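Why predict the complex rather than its parts? Because the way molecules touch one another can change local conformation, and only a joint prediction can capture that. The input here totals 750 residues.
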Amino acid sequence: MTVTAERRRSGAATRGAGTGAGAGTRSAPYLTYLLPATALFAVVIAVPLVMNIYTSFTRWTGVGPRQWAGLANYRQLWHDSEFWASMWHSLALVTAMAVIPTVLGLLVAAALFDVIAKRYSERTASFLRACIYLPQVLPIIVAAIVWGWILDPQYGALNVALRDIGLGFLAHDLLGDPHTALLTVMAVLVWFQLGYPVVIFMAALQRTDPALSEAAEIDGATWRQRLWSVVVPQIRPEIYVVLLTCTVASLRAFGWIYALTSGGPGVSTQVPSYYSYQSFFTDLDVGYGSAIATVMTLIIAAVAVVFLWVQRRHAG
Amino acid sequence: MPRKSTGLLIAALLALTAGLAACGSSGGGSGSSGSSSKVLKVWWYEGQGSAYQIAWDQAIADFKKQHPGVTVQFSLKSFNQMQQNASMILNSNNVPDVMEYNKGDATTGLLSKQGLLTDLTPEASKYGWDKLLGPDLQVTAKYDAKGVMGSGNWYGVSDYAEYVMVYYNKAMFAKYGLQVPTTMAQLTADMDTFVKHGVTPFANAGNDYVAMQYLYEMELSQSSQQQVQDYERYTGKVDFHSAAWTNAVKTFQDWVSKGYIAKNSVGLTATQAGNDFETGKNPMMLSGSWWYGTFESGIKNFQWGTFLWPGNTLNAGSGGNLFVVPKNAASKELAYDFINDTLQPDVQKLLADNGAVPVAATTDGVSNPLNVELIKNFQTLANNNGLAYYPDWPTPNFYNTLLAQTQDLMNGASGDSVLSTLQTNYDQYVSSLG
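Output of the joint prediction:
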């Protein structure tokens, strides 16, 4: 095996050098190695995606023949107030899972890296980082169920504790009140998501050039000025990655809604992914569920393209 | 070289596709080859320890005695697993011979419409099921060509019934000197007494089927059997701004504001409501007979009983889940025999003894007074033609719609807008039926 590989490599190199055929010739043998990934991509992503798009143009209960419906599902979507409400809620989740954790994560990472590690010890900073990252390790459903217990209006730890310390007037059915349900879900999501940017940013800070910060400090820059004008430009690629992955994760947020609120009360925490699931499996309106999923796929793809384009422009 | 490797890539992809296709066809083949063997595959999703599981285990034992050469392969499924995958499973060749499935248009009705179930009409008359099940219970066994229940062919058979009632805590009633109410005025007086003593009378769950059943019972108090048929079977126009529905949303909101139902139960599930009743937090709970077994085994600290919703002739309830025979079942004759076994006296007696309502609905030989009460209340309902099915049955998404709308009602939404949403949703589905 090794011998064959060596022979191939040397053969290709010789031919490449001799004919000037270049990269195309050299990369050809490696196409075979793309086979497993291509097959997997086809089976797991491409075929289901095409089927989903096709289904979105049909009326289908999930069994039996599909009825061609043209753009009917998309027209219905356009006039569906629950869908638009779910889209707005998605924006709230983007705030809770991407914007706030990125900003907060940057501050926390900088504080751990600059202040805690220097004044106390690296070990203390690592310990705190691990604590903040812990929610990311928990299975979402488990964490959501535990949060459901904590926030239970009658027996939940939060409300019981508030009543016990004489702050009963603050006790509230946070997930049951449409005015507070989405904010509560957002707060839980910030708790869950924060660890991810902190870990990425702390790793990024390790590779920044300390000389730049020191020079700025000598020139009289404050900590905030150094963070914003010296550190942030250096870790911009990591910020893009965090923003992109967190935004995509927030648009796909399903488990939290499924386990915490089921989209309620009313539709006050409904999000497109859960709405799509409901249409698929409980409403048996698979065509409509597919239309929601297709729209979300397009939005996620567009978000990814925009982020990558901005990132490339800055890198260039 | 490049051409060769590209060719190799294409060939390998083709081989993989062919392999996948072959897997698919061989899967189908192995399923159908099972037809010659003497095996009965039975699936259900009732939990271990439930009355149904105890009774149906007996049906399997009886079946084995009658068919010594047949192997019974039983699989316990989960409700979600069945709900989400039934259509896909039944479309394949690897199907059970007989399986439990939910009654109603959106479940068994849908499968029958798609031709995935066996028409059991000849067997219903051959085995006498059409005599054993009363007309009320036959409604959920029969479906027409559009998959609408109540007429057409038999597509399933249930061996038990279920209905909604009020569970009450006898100790708490005694503590405040209260009587079991027989009229709505008495119930209201009882609830006022509880509220005066800081007790929320009814356990509720806004994030589950419980809240919508309160609303439905309130609606039924001013409804007729004809209106129920119109609502459930589309036999006439349904007006959600009728006096009955308008009264229901008004009463429901009234109950929330007076504290008969806790406002903060809006996010609770049925299990949490059941716990609230079991732990004595709430002295009453409106729910179905499916809680009987749980309460019989779970409540040790106080005596409890049940009564029908005061003043109602109509109450939510129906035949139980169905045993259906998939179209592609390999051993249909054996499946019919098994279904018939579930209707025999020994199995029916086990249902009655364990807190379920057998379709035979006889209290003969039933010793537990709670179980006798359960069956007697059902007899009252059946004799008065009082089964009104369930509020979420008319359209596949009515469960989600009603759930969201009752939550909104609890949070103070206008009754009129809630009824308009229900009307729009209902009308949309009915017009799509053609």
